[in-house]
Amino acid sequence: NKTILLNKRPQGKPELSDFKTITETIPAAGAGELVLKTRYVSVDPYLRGRMNDARSYVPPFQLNEPIQSGIIAEVVESKHADYQTGDFVSGMLAWKEYQNFFCKGLQRVDPSVASLSSYLGVLGMTGLTAYLGLTEIGKPVEGETLIVSGAGGAVGTVVGQVGKLLGCRVVGITGSDEKVHLLRDRFSFDEAINYKKSLHLKQAIRAACPDGVDCYFDNVGGEISDAVMTQLNTFARIAVCGAISLYNETEVPTGPRLQPIILTRRATMQGFIISDFSKQFASASKQLATWLGEGKLTATETIVEGFDQIPQAFLDLFEGKNTGKMIVKV
Ligand code: NDP
Fold first, then answer.
1. Residues 60 and 198 in one domain
2. Domain that holds residue 229
3. Pair 206, 105 in one domain
4. What's the gap in Å between 98 CA and the centre of ligand 1?
5. What is the interface pTM, i.e. ipTM, of the complex?
6. Nearest Cα to 170, choosing from 122, 138, 137?
7. pTM score > 0.90 for this model?
8. Residues 181 and 94 in one domain
9. Cβ atoms within 10 A of the Cβ of 39, count?
10. Which residues line ligand 1 (CB under 6 A)?
11. Is there a domain that residue 284 lies in?
12. pLDDT per residue over 28-52, tens digit each?
């Protein structure tokens, strides 16, 4: 029974040596407990923040303790009346092959409704983040221009597709030509830009958004966002979802002063954490599942196989090796 611990706090970009694998015995279920077998593990950029010893909206991981993330697990032993062996659940669980667990915080998932992995992506936290961040903060209106950074990732691919369903002109910014083609051809983005190849990102954004930007869904922050901000229309909304380009910085990054842009364009910039919208999870999940069932929304996943691959899959997020949701199948 392997467990992956935080071995040391990453300095800058995380490395494999920041993690350590140990082997323990498979636990038995105590009274009211379940034994869970890990089936699919979500690796997410926000876990990087939890590896720092810093105050945030979630407490930091402790050294020599298991990392936790969203996991789909199978019940292999149950001492709880509501759960049977063979049930599947989703929850914030430890990076362990097997673990015992009280049922608090677990949600049932049904593999006959959608694939198990989709409960970590389009029907899970990243799908909800995309849908609720966009509709509650970005508030796009039919005919407006929506631009999304990190467009080829888990959140970004859903933001763009939902933007199209809401009738927007959608432009994506991503890190490879392959993802550019995917966004245009498979997800019907109106335009997509490879930020690694665009020497003049500002001009590329201006060309892709001839009517300016009404809504910016920001997954990456940093220089990409600086370039988008110059193209805002009056009363633009900026939903600050993530800032992956800055998560590995060791100094406080500096950039252009944005206040004059925010002021003159009367733009609204708001950060959010998906748990802010927990009251809307049920209705949002229903909408996403309906679109998925109707074929209006496509789930995109990069699935890596093997428990031992979890740390590498996490590191690969910072290299853009995933398209859509990065998931490890155990
Ligand atoms: P992704 O699936 O988008 O994976 C990360 C992607 O980020 C990579 O594939 C890569 O794509 C891109 N990337 C990596 N490094 C950089 C960089 N230096 N500059 C620009 N892009 C980079 O992850 P998620 O969809 O899970 O998350 C997207 C963002 O949303 C993250 O910032 C995350 O922290 C945030 N988030 C926020 C939530 C909230 O509640 N506010 C909830 C969930 C996620 P590419 O090839 O394009 O470079």
1. no
2. 125-275
3. no
4. 29
5. 0.99
6. 138
7. yes
8. no
9. 17
10. 44-46, 126, 129, 150, 152-156, 174-176, 179, 219-220, 224, 241-245, 272-274, 317-318, 320, 322, 326
11. no
12. 999 999 999 999 999 999 999 999 9
